[in-house]
DNA sequence: ACTATCTAGTTAACAACTATAACTATATGC
DNA sequence: GCATATAGTTATAGTTGTTAACTAGATAGT
């Protein structure tokens, strides 16, 4: 089936019958955006497989963990923390509420805002999911040592939250 | 405006009036998928700003660089390399062709397939964009040293292409 | 109290991206 | 020459991300 191994030759004028299979050697290999996206897709694929049985998507998982950590958080604050637009939060919480994992509590002092809490069921599930997510991370990064994994994590935090990166 | 600094207290039954602003301290901070996504969004934001004047989106940039490296590559192979579905390649190449940056050449041996080439204009633009992308990467990761940036890149390659990671 | 302005949440509309199925034209193997 | 496979394309639908606009309640000034 495979016709030939890739050769490094370049600058030809005829359609190419070789089968290059990676970006190795191209400038693309040095671009952080590209590498981040590809790595993210890899890790997300594992995550989604792990969560498939629970029908939990990445944004839902993140929300559950944040609500668990900040019970009574308002939707606005949740949106800020996760850097998600407020309209997206609405359907996210709707979904969690429909499944009986979270609930909105109208705030007495400011009747416009809702505090979000996990139900007992939501708390229990979140505990499970956190363990699952950790396993998924490890599986997705088999090619990394534990030290490298931690290194990677700390470099990533420096990028997306340079202020909070362990000082 | 700001009401109060976040306190670490948790497990309350009333809506929270504190304003947590990050995932610091939460389990989420240790999840690779989350960190990768947030970091990717950060880097992409810079990239998109840099490319805005040229109306080039990330996938288009990647395509240009791969076509430059493998002139005459078929759409199928381009799809494989970038891990994009074939239908998506079609509109991508259409767009590049409409802008006079790339062109399809029907392959003589296999009249089903097209070799894709950059036009002179496409080549010139790609050179410009590559330099721009590098600058954008650096700007997006000001909080990293050059060594850390290279470290990060190599860790990411290990994840998404464990076989080709510099052996 | 009365009005204007602000904010939290929501709804709706829309663009962008992803994934799938099906169609065409060639090509290949028996 | 017939059945099957492949490259590219088109069409379609589901998901996400983005923006604008609406409602209910809050706040400040007069």
UniProtKB/TrEMBL annotation, chains A, B:
Residues 1-22 are annotated as: Disordered. Residues 29-161 form the HTH marR-type domain. SMART domains: HTH_MARR (SM00347). Transmembrane segments: none annotated. Residues 1-10 have a biased composition (Polar residues). This is MarR family transcriptional regulator. The lineage of its organism: Bacteria, Pseudomonadati, Pseudomonadota, Gammaproteobacteria, Oceanospirillales.
């Amino acid at each position: 089936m495979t016709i030939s191994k890739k050769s490094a030759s370049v600058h030809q004028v005829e359609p190419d019958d070789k089968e290059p299979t990676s970006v190795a050697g191209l400038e693309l290999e040095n671009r952080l955006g590209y590498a981040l996206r590809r790595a993210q897709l890899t890790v997300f694929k594992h995550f989604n497989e792990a969560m498939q049985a629970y029908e939990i998507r990445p944004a839902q998982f993140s929300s559950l963990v944040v609500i668990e950590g900040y019970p009574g958080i308002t939707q606005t604050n949740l949106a800020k923390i996760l850097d998600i637009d407020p309209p997206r939060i609405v359907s996210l919480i709707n979904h969690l509420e429909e499944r009986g994992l979270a609930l909105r509590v109208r705030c007495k002092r400011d009747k416009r805002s809702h505090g979000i809490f996990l139900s007992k069921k939501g708390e229990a599930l979140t505990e499970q999911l956190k363990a699952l997510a950790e396993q998924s991370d490890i599986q997705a990064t088999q090619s990394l040592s534990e030290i490298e994994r931690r290194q990677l994590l700390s470099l990533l935090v420096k990028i997306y939250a340079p202020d909070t990166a362990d000082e």
